[in-house]
Amino acid sequence: MTRIPSKAEILDWIAAHPTHTSKRDIAKAFGIKGSDRIDLKRILKELEAEGHLEKRKKTYRDPERLPPVSVLQIKAPDGDGDLFARPLEWHGEGVEPIVLVMPRASDPALGEGDRILARLTVVQDAEYHYEARLIRRIGTNPRRVIGIFRKGDEGGRIVPIDKSASTEWAVAENATHGARDGELVEAEQAGPKSRLGLPRARVVDRLGDPSAPKAVSLIAIHQHGIPDHFPDEVIAEADAAKPMGLKGREDLRDLPLITIDPADARDHDDACYAHADDDPKNPGGHVIWVAIADVAAYVQPGSMLDREARKRGNSSYFPDRVVPMLPDRLSGDLCSLHEGVPRACVAVRMQIDADGNKIAHRFVRGLMRSAASLHYAEVQEAMDGAPTDRTGPFLEPVIKPLYAAYAALVKARAERQPLDLDLPERKIVLDEKGTVASVNFRDRLDAHKLIEEFMVLANVAAAETLIKKRTPLLFRVHEEPSPEKLEALRETARAAGLALAKGQVLQTRHLNALLHGAAGTDDAELINISTLRSMQQAYYGPENFGHFGLALRNYAHFTSPIRRYADLIVHRALITAHGWGDDGLDTAEIERLEQTATHISETERRSMMAERDTTDRYLAAYLAERVGNEFEGRISGIARFGAFVKLDETGADGLVPVRSIGREFFHFDAEAGTLMGADTGLIIAIGQRVKVRLAQATPVTGGLELELLSIDDKPMPAGGGGGRRSPAGRSVKRKSAKAKAKRSKIKRKVERKRRS
């Protein structure tokens, strides 16, 4: 007679083999045959009655475990980029199982909210309980919208705040989440989109008064999905951190390193010091020290802090707040190089010759003590002959040697010729209530340029060291412009009476010749904007393709590990390369460098868009009280639906809708970048000087609508009378050859007008 397994043995088998749980599978596993199957059936029924098992078709499973094929809902990627899912068929009483989704190369991309049917495998001795492999996707990620809730008789509707969204959303009475009329809400699509009527949504979060000053950045944070709350375990890990001592570090506390930052800086992650080189082999040379906060000492690979930092990718900065990559215990304290306080750092000592060329460098892991925390304006004022009680003691021993080293670096920069764009940066100044007090343009002092050059040099040193030591890292990559974008820039330059040569390997010096040729002319801003638009977007990558804009072959980000995860990766790489400790790059991190690069490049773009949208909303709020006023500006973009104008006073961008320009039809030429009036022949093109009237400002979306009054000091023509004409009414359906001839005619006319 075959031995019948105990109940415990059967339960263990089912737990270990969740895909082989039929009575036949169990009998086969224990060698049960013939009439002995009756006893097995009895035991299984007893286990079922006792609640240990439940029968599912012809299989048994532990009710505290998931079925081998389950419906899952995808969660947001974690800090490592891994996808976890919530099991929708979990009905147990304990902690919900953790399910890791294991995507294959052939699987479709999955996003937060997707519902999938997946095959599960139990995992032993891991941080998660199951691995899931996709069978098929059975749901989609609900679309999210941020908008103003308007209460109605049967629920309400949501007016999106996104300028590009024109469709409102209907909200059922049972899906308002208690939202009040006029309140800012976050909602998600409810059910499939209907062919008739408004799409339906349900409110998932109430964000408060949209007119409140601090709602401006909050809107952007929610709209772009920027994490703005640290989990409790991340905060606990940061709070447990202790200051680092001298053990295993080089003592740099006697070096008069100083930090130079904006007056309102929230952290201090870099310090510098320079002096004349006393090496007789380097006459007229300098020694430059750059010390950076040793964030890697506190953020260990794989820790909760590390996972959260990777998830965020970078800090996001807004006029009224910062969403940091690291909790304040680190970003504002232990990793901030405060004046007079010992702080762990990674520092690089660089030797440059009299012409600013780096001839040697070495990295150290040290302990420093900042001699002073200064800001740009006071350092520049001291150098310009107006030292204060704070800066006076540092003028001769520290500040002047810094500027002397910078003067040498300027020579090397002139020889290297990085791209020399002249585009002023806006600065929004808020009052105590959080409303816009003024909109200024940031100063570009030599103190700013000094720090920039020092940081660039340190970044180059980091990349060169890691390349030489063959240690994996993330490069900051900026590839050269595409041929198509270069040709568009060439056309713009030609229309302005300038030239960008063809038939040669493009270098930044060629673009600089164009920029310098336009300097001081009415076309200077146009050429600068067009050159910027021709550039590729910089990104992070494990492969080195150089940095075109800086005219550098080897470049990596090393100088801001408090606010950029890429820099933390480079710090860990330096730790590994020098054998400074066990907190460098681990194998798992090296294997996913490409994935990390893609992720943090995306988070960087996310922050840039959120910061830009916030600026637009603040500017719209600032200008809302000046509706009806006239402003000077320049055409900065052309689209089928109108022209974009950048206002001189604030740098704000507004739209002149094509429907508001005269009473004629305007032909849009994407290739030439123009709008041309069908009756008057009026041409609207990028770069033209204009006067406009502010017709509407909508702070909640950041939108500005403008009325065009004059172009290049010429008032707008009356247009072809009889009302606005449609394309069909003017028989503008032309064959391709005729269309091409028309575009050429427009281009020639544009050039004649620009040169006259």
The main β sheet shows up as: 6 strands, antiparallel
- List the total number of helices: 17
Rg, please? 32 Å
Unreliable runs: 720-740
Largest sheet strand order = 28-27-26-32-33-34
In whole angstroms, how far apart are the ends?
108 Å
Query: What percent strand?
Result: 25-35%
Please give the share of residues in helix. Answer: 25-40%
- Alpha-beta content class: alpha+beta
Mean pLDDT, all residues: 86
Based on Cα principal axes, name the global outline: globular
Instruction: Count every beta strand, where a strand is a DSSP E run of 2 or more residues.
Output: 34
Produce the secondary structure layout.
Elements: H1 7-16, H2 23-29, H3 36-49, E1 54-56, E2 59-61, E3 69-74, E4 84-87, E5 99-101, E6 115-122, E7 130-137, E8 144-152, E9 155-160, E10 169-171, E11 184-189, E12 200-208, H4 215-223, H5 232-239, E13 250-251, E14 258-261, E15 270-276, E16 286-293, H6 304-312, E17 316-317, E18 322-323, H7 328-334, E19 342-352, E20 358-369, E21 372-375, H8 376-383, H9 392-416, E22 426-430, E23 436-441, H10 446-468, E24 475-477, H11 483-495, H12 508-518, H13 524-534, E25 539-541, H14 565-578, H15 587-591, H16 593-623, E26 630-639, E27 642-647, E28 653-657, E29 666-669, E30 674-677, E31 683-685, E32 689-698, E33 703-711, E34 714-715, H17 736-755
Parallel strand pairs: 5-7, 10-12, 13-20, 14-21
Antiparallel strand pairs: 1-2, 3-4, 3-6, 4-5, 6-7, 8-9, 8-11, 9-10, 11-12, 15-16, 16-19, 17-18, 19-20, 22-23, 24-25, 26-27, 26-32, 27-28, 29-30, 30-31, 32-33, 33-34
Helix pairs in contact: 4-16, 9-10, 10-14, 11-13, 12-13
Organism: Phaeobacter inhibens
EC number: 3.1.13.1
Domain S1 motif: 628-709
